[in-house]
Amino acid sequence: MKKIISFFILFLFFAVAFAQQKTFIQKVFSRAPYDTNYVDSYYNYFLHVTAVSVQQNHDLIISNSSNNTSFNYKPNSVFRFGVGLDFRYFSIEFTKSIDAIDKPNASKGNSDVFSLRLGITGRRLLGSMLAQSYKGMYLNNPEQVIPNWNASYGYPLRNDITSEILLGSLNYFFNHKRYSTMASLWQIDRQKKSAGSFTTGVTFSVTHLKGDSSFIPNSSNNSFSQSDRIVEGYNYLAGINAGYAYNFIFAKKFFFNALFIPGINLQYGKFELENKEIKTYSSTLGYHGDVRLIAGYNGVQYYSGVHYSNYFLSNRLESNFDVNIYNGYFRIFVGRRFDLTPKHKKK
User: Fold this and answer.
1) Spatial separation of the C-alpha atoms in residues 248 and 305, rounded to whole Å
2) What percent of the chain clears pLDDT 70, i.e. is strictly above it?
3) What is the per-residue pLDDT across 29-45, written as a single tens digit (0 to 9) for each?
4) Would you say residue 276 lies in a domain?
5) Of 141, 142, 203, 307, which alpha carbon lies 20 to 30 A from 84's?
6) Which residues, at least 6 apart from 34, have a Cβ–Cβ distance to it below 8 Å?
7) Residue range of the domain that includes 40
8) What's the angle, vertex CA 263, arms to CA 260 and CA 267, rounded to 5?
9) Strand, helix or coil at 159?
10) How far is the C-alpha of 171 from the C-alpha of 237, rounded, in Å?
11) Domain at 171, CATH number
12) How far apart are CA 309 and CA 117, in angstroms?
């Protein structure tokens, strides 16, 4: 995790350096004008208070296309409950697990989770930065990959497996006057009429996987070669994105938002095998993507809904051997806007 945190700090350093350039801020991060026939804004004088329930999911899938076999590792995750506050550019959300409501499944082992998210949500730009670490996972599909496995054995546990990721993306929306990302994602705006927008941008990531032994258990079938039995790996990725988002409005205040931003990338990295052999790869073409589905109610004072998103990365170590990572996010929210407009400004 130290290397990932170092990259994260380096990114913040460059972000602060760019922030000193007023022309850059004015051109890119200034608030874009919008068409009032399509969008209402609650940015300037409204405090948004939101009750939330959140679950983060992580799928680490190791697959070999030559034998159509995949190992799916997952952490033992639960719903977290809390509250979020949004006022202008300030946003904070605190959540905590509550055993009385959703307790971890003891048969899936213990997982230590660290997650830090930063984001930019504007009319022109949608950006995110994620630093995340999971330690301790269980094999979610033993019936498919371990011969003679029986459910009475329980899930195979791998408390030694660590999956770390630093992920950043930035996308520009072309139809920002009529389509509002803030209306669909965080309800700081309200979309009044249906609208959509093409978008394009960039993505980068650093991933680190490590186990005390091979990610492919010895009890699995023998169709995996020694070159598949990795115990540690690093992957560095940089790519471009292009996609489309649309916000459907029903009965003026109900909405359904769909966003899909796929991308292609170049990768390089290295991995260590169980026999201590170290392999490297470079200029490998891969793919990634961002999928978001959101539905709910967005009224003048109150808003609510459900939000699902999944960011996926495909890391190709060899021509027939992939390590794919899926970061899922599910959020249920109910909120209210409080008008803080100074009395002398109200008409």
Assistant:
1) 14
2) 87
3) 566 789 999 999 998 88
4) yes
5) 203
6) 41, 123, 176, 177, 178, 180, 189
7) 2-341
8) 145
9) strand
10) 17
11) 2.40.128
12) 14
